Amino acid sequence: MNVKKTVVAAMLVCALSAGVLSDEAHLPRAFAQQAKAKIEVSEDIIAKVKKAIKDAMPNSIYEIADYSRVGMPNFPEGEYIDFELQDKRGNIVVNAQSGEIVLFSLVADLKDVPSSILTTGKNKLKELDPKMAQVKGAYRGQDTWILQGQNFASVTIDGKSGKVTKATVSYAKAPDKSKVDIARKTMKLLNGGQDVKVLNGVNLNHNPQNKEGKVLEFIDAELKICILHIGADTGKIWGAVLLREEESYKSDDEYKRTFAQPILTSEQAIAKAAPTVKQLFGVDLKGSKVVIQLDRYTFTKQGQPTVIALVNPKGTFHTFEQQPMKGLKN
After folding, report:
1. N or C: which end of the chain has fewer CB within 10 A?
2. d(C-alpha 309, C-alpha 299), whole Å
3. Which of 146, 166, 186 represents a domain boundary (last residue)?
């Protein structure tokens, strides 16, 4: 689980009926296109965009069809230009002031994807679920390949190293009832003992950067109580997000200002986080060393898993994660 910014809820909302596409495969829906009007774009920026396309896909032809200003709510303030490619074959968004490419996605024909990348993607999908081993589409980022399988399965591969950085398989119904039962019982516990209906749709995630081997991602049917990360093999709870306690921030600057001074002392943090951490993970925080970085509190104690928790401005913890003592979360 990415404990700095939780975006899983929004992804799962989009997945209610159709599963989840890689967040790198398409421009985010949050981006707001402004009314099209003639705008001036420097030749340098246009040349930079064309070069980036050529560098990413040297054997394919892509033509710029149009460009327009766009609003990018999740990016620093500034003017952004969206370059649309002919035949809906991709989008590239550039910061008009700096010339930096902030989003880059090209639709790629499978024949243009290196065979080693295709093989790696197929093998990873097969590892997650043997029924999902077929690759049906591909997208090219500046430094990545995103391969898409059936039922919105996706694999992201580093374009330089050829290694899988993350993969997701989405199911309309959880394949393992025992894990659904664990999710239901845990959600009830976190909801003050009241029953909670678990959403049928579930994601199976692989993300080695977050130490995720095979982790199932559950959310309640009303999309407002909690998200749970449960090991697909072990049934162990690896993380939880209490959605009602989360706060949103207009910008990174506002977020950093809010937590410029610690919201809680180490002692207060242990006292507040300990009951939920014990419920979720069976870990005792008493005597833990606490490291504070903005809203992130890291609890370490010899002989037990490291626990990370995020706090809101009111001093309530909303996100909890335990790290495996060795290996990946499974």
Report:
1. C
2. 8
3. 166
